Task: inverse folding
């Protein structure tokens, strides 16, 4: 190999490359930079010893400190549970009605319940439980399945017409679609239902149909039955839309709302907190 | 040697390819070869033909651009979305839908979280149920009939890449789509082939088997297949 050429001006060696008369100086890398590079190499090797890294024939090296992201998570969760244990234990030991009656627990449950509600309940029942067509308002005192905090707790745990075995279930017959009533009878009973809340004049024929077909669940006076999830028809609150057309459609071919069971999705403390929260939204009984 | 490499673009390209390949292979091959990559769980099954049709629509519409299907093992994630995702839960995914882009929430465990009615309203117009949502509406899905004559072909294609569909499942694919989406036909046989599949008319329109039916059937299954009753998470710490 030829002796490296020296640049006359700076006295440094050149790389020997030449492009159109321009030559490149062969300036060495700064010492500090090289040391950093060596340090990162040492770091990388040490890292693979301390943490899980290398594949083996039947698995992989677990590393010296037995780290795993799932294991870390379990530790993290256990630590959080520990730090909250004085509260969590009280929630686990108390029934929802006891929680609602205890000022300290109630305050705590309101904060926790609000977060649970926002993520899990608000998509249907809307912010602050104001509800919308097809999704009952939780902020008024019109309850389908009962407004006591225990009733709310049961509804949340097992859901309404959910796939849980203990779900609350009721099924209004499709009086029109299944031809249990003819069109005239449907119109009459709709008029009667409207009259219950003062929306129209009394309809004698409709009242007879109502007594035969509807009163068993909705009650003689149409005020509903919370044991059966039969809505109150004598107030101005309508689950599936107000007005003659909406009521008529519901008599013909009723919509049945579905609420999931939360017992397998949320832990019991969260369900208790959100039950108390819902109970406090304005309509709790 | 270096001079040759620097001055010959083809040599340089080949050498670059080899170097990068080594890096990639060293990282990826062990994961395919190791038994511990995919957890042993009970309950995972290949997707039913209707769920698969929904999944295809999910991919076609680019849902993965905003929704991931992977709950990471962090406290904030599991408190919001539920148990962290297992590798086993996407072992029949081709391609997987993990993603790191979350304009919308993770949907790995959305199954059973909402009612079918909610999904119908939400897909047609998300703002009707979630006022602050920025998701586009997909109203055409509710009116577009699902094309499922080729359901068996989709199952066959996936079995080529290793999804264990049986010949019985392939043969009854079209019938299974109908059974799951209408609740008519041999539903029990379909459920025996695909346990825990949600059955029924999903989009509130029993007269028509639409793309929305398939989509909701897929969404209602997500994250619900693995049976956690006997699962010991500490066996799969990694």
Result:
């Amino acid at each position: 190999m030829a002796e490296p050429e020296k640049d006359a001006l700076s006295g440094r060696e050149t790389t020997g490359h030449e492009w159109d008369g321009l030559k490149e100086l062969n300036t060495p890398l700064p010492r500090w930079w090289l040391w950093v590079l060596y340090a990162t190499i040492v770091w990388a090797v040490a890292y693979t010893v301390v943490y899980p890294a290398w594949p083996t024939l039947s698995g992989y090296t677990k590393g010296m400190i037995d780290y795993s992201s799932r294991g870390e998570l379990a530790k993290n969760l256990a630590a959080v549970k520990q730090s909250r244990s004085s509260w969590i234990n009280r929630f686990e030991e108390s029934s929802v009605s006891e929680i609602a009656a205890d000022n300290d627990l109630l305050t705590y449950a309101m904060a926790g319940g609000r977060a649970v509600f926002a993520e899990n309940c608000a998509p249907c029942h809307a912010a602050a439980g104001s509800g919308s067509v097809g999704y009952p308002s939780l902020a008024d005192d019109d309850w389908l399945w009962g407004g006591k905090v225990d009733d709310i707790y049961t509804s949340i745990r097992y859901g309404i017409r959910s796939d849980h075995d203990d779900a609350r279930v009721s099924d209004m017959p499709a009086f029109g679609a299944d031809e249990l009533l003819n069109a005239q009878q449907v119109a009459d009973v709709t008029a009667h239902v409207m009259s219950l809340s003062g929306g129209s004049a009394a309809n004698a024929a409709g009242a007879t149909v109502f007594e035969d077909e509807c009163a068993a669940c909705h009650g003689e006076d149409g005020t509903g039955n919370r044991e059966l999830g039969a809505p109150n028809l004598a107030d101005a609150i309508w689950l599936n839309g107000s007005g003659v057309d909406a009521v008529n459609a519901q008599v013909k071919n009723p919509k049945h709302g579905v609420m999931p069971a939360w017992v397998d999705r949320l832990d019991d403390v969260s369900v208790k907190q959100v039950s108390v929260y819902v109970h406090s939204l304005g309509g709790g009984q | 040697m270096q001079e040759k490499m620097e001055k010959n673009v083809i040599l340089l390209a080949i050498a670059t390819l080899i170097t990068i390949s080594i890096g990639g292979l060293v990282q990826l091959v062990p994961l395919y070869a190791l038994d511990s990559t995919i957890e042993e769980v009970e309950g995972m099954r290949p997707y039913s033909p209707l769920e698969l049709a929904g999944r295809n629509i999910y991919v076609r519409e680019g849902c993965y651009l905003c929704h991931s299907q992977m709950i990471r093992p962090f406290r904030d994630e599991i408190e919001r979305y539920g148990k962290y995702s297992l590798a086993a839960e996407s072992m029949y995914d081709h391609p997987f839908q993990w993603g790191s882009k979350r304009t919308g929430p993770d949907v790995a465990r959305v199954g059973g979280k909402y009612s079918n009615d909610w999904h119908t309203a939400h897909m047609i117009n998300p703002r009707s149920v979630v006022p602050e949502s920025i998701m586009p509406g997909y109203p055409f899905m509710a009116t577009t009939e699902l094309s499922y004559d080729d359901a068996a072909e989709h199952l066959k294609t996936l079995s080529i890449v290793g999804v264990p569909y049986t010949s019985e499942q392939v043969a009854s694919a079209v019938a299974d789509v109908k059974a799951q989406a209408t609740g008519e036909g041999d539903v029990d046989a379909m459920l025996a082939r695909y346990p825990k599949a949600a059955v029924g008319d999903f989009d509130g329109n029993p007269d028509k088997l639409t793309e929305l039916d398939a989509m909701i059937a897929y969404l209602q299954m997500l994250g619900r297949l693995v049976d956690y009753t006997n699962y010991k998470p500490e066996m799969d710490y990694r």
